[in-house]
């Protein structure tokens, strides 16, 4: 770092002939423009007034149902927001970052609109919690309430910055207690390993709500937990002092901009107030401790400096404070008069629109010997390659997906790194939330980016990524339609391979409970092609479930469809027509249902119709109702255990919307409510089988 620097920010520059205030620091003089110092005080005082305004709204029950004060953190927050370049950098603030957001570019009105949950809130339109400030249009990202998980998103976008040779910086801000989260460690580790342009700002006030650092961290200076990370620079600053905070920020920026790796800017702060409006710090902090914290009030420290060094006189400061009070009051009055959200908009922006005006090929009834056939695994592999050729801004990563000729555990991505290179196809650590979280961040860099991830080697191991999956699913809704990750999450799912408890789980019913996800499950090669194309060409998040038992089965083989073939989301397919009863299935059970249907016809003279859902969200309700109205009897079959399985939802829909057409109760056949055992004999006893479907169908037909 140079021994002498000049603060520069947009319109607050002064000419070299104007007066400068010299700020003596331990490592030399840093020159700061007088106008800059005045601007800093104006912003910090404005932030304090907004903080107090928020508390007032809470007391009056008029808004800000969640308020976490930034008082005591304003020094580092001012510098963080000041260092962020609007429309260029990526800033991930956390719930305490009011001052950060104000300094980064949010207006007073915009902050109050968030606090009062107005539809004009630029970040979420009133959908997200108060005190969660964002403005996606200028790069201030909308983050969740799950503390620290945006660290992975910052790493993801930093990976994209490096990939595209950008000069942007990703900033991720969070409190000291967030460092206890595993995904923060994974984020820092991944950023250090890849030497990514990201600055992690840790605001350390020594408390996680009521729990002290001593009770939850190996080091009270939580940044010291990362000592030894290769390519990581750690900078410690006094977060109550704007000058030391700025000095440290410059040091971190110099390091990151040089391409040396990421940096942690660890800022010691004080918490002057309770953690939030639902907390009472007097229950666990002494009056003496609280008073000592307030002695380091960043606003008072800056005010005293300005007066002592003749940067401003008392009358100038008073004039700024009066102007700020009017600004806040006028903004409050204006925002309070704005309309509240319309209830009819509550379910908007759950899932982004899919690719439109797409039609799948007509089913092939007469095989053409001139058209080659392929199985499910081959279909997925070839389609991925086709789509990667089609869109050069498509990427894939996961565990074991790019190791020479090995393409994942089941070789689905074989040959992809050889064709598309290690910058587009690469391995990820065994850290499922890191895989998903960085994909979320990566998509933020450009709208035409599509990321395909192998979310886990087996779907069974995806559980650590569930928090990040929720983030992906909620982004579109939480940002009021302003952002959605474009991600296809591939998961090898299900049993019938002798995999035992942890290689045989079916997760479809779990995913179906999460709003914002598309969930598809092809059973044949042509559907694998059409659904993959649809998923990769549509905006949003798609869970693409691959039943690993089906990968190489001959009965999944179809002729290669045309290059234009897609399968629209939420469009079921009749695999076998019939009149006596309907069997609805998806995934592996589709094939069992077809076999059972053939036996029903030849051995029992029962003509069953088999409907392959192909996707469970969106769900083709019309097709289900149509087949029920046709046959009057419904048997739902799925691999997931019976209790809590998605078949219960289908049964409920039919009972509500087609009850008068039923000639018998809806029946379900599924796996037993048990983990899947390793022994082949025991596995067969637990998982749904063709014989189970056959017996249930005979019983249903006789009802």
Ordered list of secondary-structure elements with their pairings:
Layout: E1 20-25, E2 28-33, H1 34-59, H2 74-83, E3 90-92, H3 98-104, H4 108-115, H5 150-163, E4 170-175, H6 182-194, E5 198-204, E6 207-208, E7 211-212, E8 233-238, H7 242-257, E9 263-268, H8 287-294, H9 298-308, H10 314-336, E10 373-374, H11 376-390, E11 394-398, H12 416-420, E12 425-427, H13 432-442, E13 450-454, H14 466-478, E14 487-493, H15 508-512, E15 518-520, H16 525-537, E16 541-547, E17 558-559, E18 573-576, E19 581-585, H17 589-603, E20 608-612, E21 615-617, H18 621-631, E22 634-641, H19 647-657, E23 667-671, H20 680-686, H21 690-701
Parallel strand pairs: 3-4, 4-5, 5-9, 8-9, 11-12, 11-13, 13-14, 14-16, 15-16, 19-20, 19-22, 22-23
Antiparallel strand pairs: 1-2, 6-7, 10-17, 15-21, 18-20
Helix pairs in contact: 1-3, 1-9, 1-10, 2-3, 2-7, 4-10, 5-6, 5-13, 11-16, 13-14, 17-21, 18-19
Binned, the helix content reads 25-40%
Number of strands: 23
Judged by helices, strands and strand pairing, the structural class is alpha/beta
The tally of structural domains comes to 3
Name the overall outline. Answer: elongated
Through-space gap between termini = 83 Å
Taking all residues together, what is the mean pLDDT? 93
Could you name the CATH class of the largest domain? Alpha Beta
CATH architecture of the largest domain: 3-Layer(aba) Sandwich
Strand order of the largest sheet: 12-11-13-14-16-15-21
CATH homologous superfamily caption of the largest domain: Thiamin diphosphate (ThDP)-binding fold, Pyr/PP domains
Tell me the fraction of residues in β-strands, as a range: 15-25%
Cα-atom radius of gyration: 29 Å
Which sheet architecture does the biggest sheet show? 7 strands, mixed
* Unreliable runs: 1-8, 10-27
Total helical segments: 21
